[in-house]
Design a protein that fits this description.
With 282 residues, the protein is an alpha/beta fold. It is built from 8 helices and 12 strands. Helix 1 crosses helix 4.
Length: 282
């Protein structure tokens, strides 16, 4: 049994963590809440990677002293991120790796499971360059490459296809927690349905999160209609979705707060801050 390799034997798991008040700017919540959630997402991502690949080194690329503090407390290593973007942060991590191979996971996967980490690394084993696309088939959920200086990556919009063009083989993996990165209210709702880690759970219990923000898109005479979330997703509004909030005459173009059902495509409550039961402007 001593000769059987464990997941992560030859891996360094690089996690770029921006940190600070500008993190997760698309989450439309107060700055303090957004900062706390971004840190919680990162800590849950790092914890899942460490638990899923206990033989691997977890290396966090960051320029934020607070991030460095909790990473070191967790027993992991940091490398300086000079603030020149994700590709530069990943390159710094790859250059500082002490193993032969690097797997990159961004720090916004609060629903990531240790078992998913094990499965993903096993799938990439023996392949020089791989990429796993995110749930939207556009971004990169996982990227593997050799350790050392000179790493070429292409994070950003359309990064999954861009990494394929750089020679990374796309792996099709059914790992919901790995594929679901969180950038906005809709993706956070999806992660919550999957189940998030302990750090995110605690951060959410301490936060007061408003509903997702939306704009009324269509309205019918019976009170049904549709709304556009701020991330562009169109959701349906049943006739009774605004009744409990004291609203009767929603109009096209009106800004509202909205709570969705478990499927994430249908409103269960629509309200305007300051109007209706329990809504105080003070």
């Amino acid at each position: 049994m001593g000769g059987v390799s464990q997941p992560g034997d030859d891996w360094t798991l690089v996690v770029p963590v921006r940190g600070g008040p500008l993190s997760k700017s698309r989450l439309q919540v107060p700055r303090e809440t957004r900062t706390a959630l971004a840190e919680a997402f990162a800590r849950d991502t790092v914890a899942a990677l460490s638990a899923g690949a206990p033989m691997a080194e977890v290396l966090v690329a960051t320029g934020d002293p607070e991030v460095e503090r909790w990473v070191l407390q967790a027993g992991h290593r940091t490398v300086e991120d000079a603030g020149r973007g994700l590709d530069a942060a990943v390159a710094a991590g790859a250059a500082a790796a002490r193993t032969g191979r690097v797997a990159v996971v961004l720090a916004d996967h609060p629903a990531l499971r240790p078992e998913e980490v094990r499965i993903a690394l096993r799938a990439a084993d023996g392949l020089a360059l791989t990429v796993v696309a995110d749930a939207d088939h556009d971004g990169t959920a996982l990227l593997t490459l050799p350790a050392g200086a000179g790493a070429q990556t292409a994070f950003g919009a359309g990064s999954a296809a861009a990494h394929e063009r750089l020679g990374h083989q796309r792996l099709e993996l059914d790992l919901p927690g790995l594929l679901r990165d969180v950038d906005d209210a809709a993706s956070l709702a999806t992660a919550l349905r999957l189940g998030v880690g302990a750090h995110t759970t605690r951060a959410l219990t301490r936060a007061t999160l408003p509903g997702m923000q939306a704009t009324i898109h269509t309205m019918a005479e019976d009170g049904s209609g549709s709304a556009l979330l701020d991330d562009g997703l169109r959701v349906s509004l049943p006739p009774d979705s605004a009744v409990s909030s004291g609203l009767r005459h929603l109009r096209v173009g009106q800004r509202v707060s909205i709570e969705l059902d478990e499927g994430g495509e249908r409103a269960v409550r629509v309200w305007v801050v300051g109007i209706g039961p329990g809504e105080s402007i003070a």
